Amino acid sequence: MVTLEDKLKNPVFYSLQESHSEHCINLNGVTFYNPIINNFGAFIDQTKTEKALNNYANLTDTFFLVSENQIPTYDEKKIILEKKIDGCQMVLDNFIDYKITEEIILLNHKHIDMVYELIWKVMPGFYQKKGFEMGKFFGIFKDNKLVAISGQRMQTNDFIEVSSVVTDPKHTKRGFAKQLISHTTKDILNNKKLPILHTNKGNLAIPLYEKLGYKLTRDMNWWYFKRK
What is the CATH number of domain 90-219? Predict the structure, then answer.
């Protein structure tokens, strides 16, 4: 039987088995998101990744494999390892409520372009417009302009990941991110699921997450590949 711990160790793989199965491309046991949604993949057997990466590279130029500690194999004649991002996973341990002073809006499809533009302004290169379909997105507006967002990305029957926490540089240091994370976390709890998130090791935002009750649990590495 697959346990919650199993799923947390391989969140992309099990998201594609469960809540996001409609977006799954299965290449001999190595699973990937349809690249119009997201360019993440995951695996259990690292000996199968070389062939799978070659096949997935026919669909998209750049992509990730996500793993706790396994090292994927790849064909150096066809695939370039651009970098390995040393990440970590945080899981909600004990929710610490935070006062919401801003109006937080559940975003809908009329906001897709705004979400895309804001994410690419702050974190270019790692978000597909149709990634909006992976889960709920929440936003804060100022003067009719979307200035801060948080979203929900990978998810299974047991957990939902808080992701895409982005604030326009002109509107930082106002507590928007903290309020959005708190709001998104409560929404996940209301859906009877465990809130989790992923970030880079050493990210200055980690203390913020800890103040909301999240706890560092494990490494989660992001192998970033590019087609030759």
Answer: 3.40.630.30
